[in-house]
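Practice problem: predict the structure.
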Amino acid sequence: MQLQSRIQGFEQAGIGVAVLSYDAPALQQKFIDKHAITYPLLSDVAATSIGALGVLDAEYKPGDSAYGVAYPGVFIVNRDGVIVGKVFVKGFEHRVDADGVLAAAQAALQ
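Answer:
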């Protein structure tokens, strides 16, 4: 929700936002509707991409109800599709601050 509250700053900086989670599309849609989210939410129910990107929270094992949870964070991807930066924290209790993400993205994309 914090990203949505700062989305105008990202747009003004020419930076797009997309979110990837292990939540099913139907659950994501409820979140989108409830919080008026305008950026894309991508679903990775099997945690294939989350695992391939190396951000799968290893605390949860296959079969756990929370298996597939990613460490909270952000990849900064340039227009060529190359990851040029990342900001991640360990544990789901914390989130990366949207203003910090915007500053990191602006710096990485210069």
